[in-house]
Design a protein that fits this description.
The chain has 446 residues and is an alpha+beta fold. Helices cover 44% and strands 13% of the residues. It is globular and about 75 Å long.
Length: 446
């Protein structure tokens, strides 16, 4: 299995030579007695992979397994500003590694040179970091200080194509990842928080396809340049089946694209209007009648040709965007990425970064074990993978043993980390394999 060899090489490189180089740059180890930068990184990351709430005693056990027998207090004393600096650089180095499984053998995904899902998740920080990592303030979930992890994942290969840490206050639309790093012939899928007509207009110049919902109130024009009242046009032409139309998007850009619109069930529209009113109330505003009317529709825009992507396939692919939300849930609920910890601000930030590194490592191990298995449960697989953490760190220096253990893990997960085929409510991968199937839960919610 080539992916097993690639993951082994990447893990050895990150926690070996790269960790040592970064440790020297950050002056992490002043006087080498027991710990090296490499053994400290392995202790912390593999220890938190095993248990995201690991105690100092548990980490001391992992340190001994890494050839650094120290007391729990010795580990606690390592949580300094220099460790924080080291962890930031190690995270940057780790995310720059190219680790991808073999492309999924799913015809819908094979039409593109990568199907990239992009989203972000915010994590609250101690208020002491408000100047360096300003949050939105006024919200307990955001706070005065927070960071935002911008993440891009290839749905086909599972590659974490980008992980970028930004201040929580920065809007998603402004991230540099909006436009760069997409291979020619790939498809970019992002939610409404990233909607920007100028960005969408930039992508085709690099041979990149896009699929997005349209922001309410966005100007649209007919192909002859005449203004188009989208809501009026949709209401006048709706006959119970999806509407498709070629339009020009944006008053300045006039981006040629394909519009696909569907009317949602009334209960979905009602939920959307409720969220819209709640959001407006928090901001001291009142939603307009037009915005409320817009909630009755799900409208997609894309530059993918109809013969390459049907309207049913558009729905299935955009629905797949929730896979990155499930990844964040796995990181936060099971990896405790956003769970507050005690101690000094530096200790809290260091713990967050170690957990993030542990989740990236976990993702690599999942790529090596279950990603090529369509009926996989990442939650089940992650739970089993954490149980292998101690064995993995013990044999990390021996590539052959590490690969053998990864192969064993893959065999175990093939039997224990499956989800059953569902008739009434098809799973994500069932829909990708057969977009003609209709999910019982409405894919247009949100």
């Amino acid at each position: 299995m080539q992916i097993v060899t690639r993951v082994t090489s990447a893990v050895q490189r990150v926690f070996g030579t790269i960790a040592e180089e970064l440790g020297q740059q950050c002056q992490l180890i002043q006087r080498q007695r027991v710990f090296t930068a490499s053994s400290l990184a392995k202790t912390l990351v593999f220890g938190f992979l095993h248990n995201p709430r690991a105690s100092w005693e548990e980490l001391a056990e992992f340190a001994a397994a890494c050839g650094a027998p120290v007391s729990p207090q010795a580990i606690e004393q390592r949580f300094t500003p220099k460790l924080v600096s080291f962890l930031f650089r190690l995270c940057e180095a780790m995310t720059s590694q190219v680790v991808a499984a073999e492309p999924a053998m799913i015809p819908l995904l094979q039409r593109f040179h990568g199907v990239f899902l992009h989203d972000s998740t915010a994590i609250k920080l101690p208020d002491e970091y408000a100047e360096e990592w300003p949050g939105c303030g006024g919200d307990d979930s955001a706070g005065q200080a927070s960071l935002k992890a911008q993440v891009r994942i290839d749905l086909s290969t599972g590659q974490l194509a980008a992980v970028r840490l930004e201040p929580g206050r920065d809007p998603d639309q402004k991230t540099p990842l909006q436009r760069v790093g997409f291979p020619r012939g790939s498809l970019r899928i992002a939610d409404l928080g990233y909607f920007c007509v100028k960005t969408l207009a930039f992508l085709p110049g690099g041979g990149v396809y896009f699929l997005s919902r349209i922001q309410s109130g966005t100007s649209a024009f007919q192909t002859d340049g005449q203004p188009l009242d989208l809501l009026a046009w949709l209401c006048a032409n709706w006959n119970g089946v999806p509407l498709e139309w070629k339009i020009l998007l944006g008053s300045e850009v006039r981006l040629p694209c394909r519009l696909v619109a569907l009317r949602v069930p009334e209960e979905v529209a009602a939920r959307r209007r409720g969220r819209l009113r709640d959001d407006a109330r928090r901001k001291g505003r009142t939603p307009s009648e037009k915005s409320l009317a817009w909630c009755a529709w799900t409208i997609y825009v894309t530059n993918v040709e109809p013969d390459r992507l049907s309207w049913k396939e558009i729905i299935v692919l955009y629905r797949a965007r929730w896979q990155i939300e499930l990844l964040f849930k796995l990181w936060k609920s099971h990896g405790c990425l956003a769970t507050p910890t005690g101690g000094t601000p530096h200790r809290q930030l260091a713990t967050l970064l170690i957990r993030l590194l542990a989740m990236i490592l976990q993702h690599w191990l999942l790529l090596a074990s279950v990603w090529s298995m369509p009926q996989r449960s990442l939650t089940k697989a992650a739970r089993a993978t954490r149980g292998f953490a101690r064995c993995l760190v013990c044999c990390l220096d021996d590539a052959g043993q590490f690969e053998h253990l990864l192969t064993t893990l893959s065999d175990v997960l093939a039997r224990t980390a499956r989800i059953n085929t569902r008739k009434r409510n098809p799973s994500h991968w069932q829909l990708l394999q057969n977009p003609e199937r209709k999910p019982s839960s409405n894919p247009l919610c949100g």
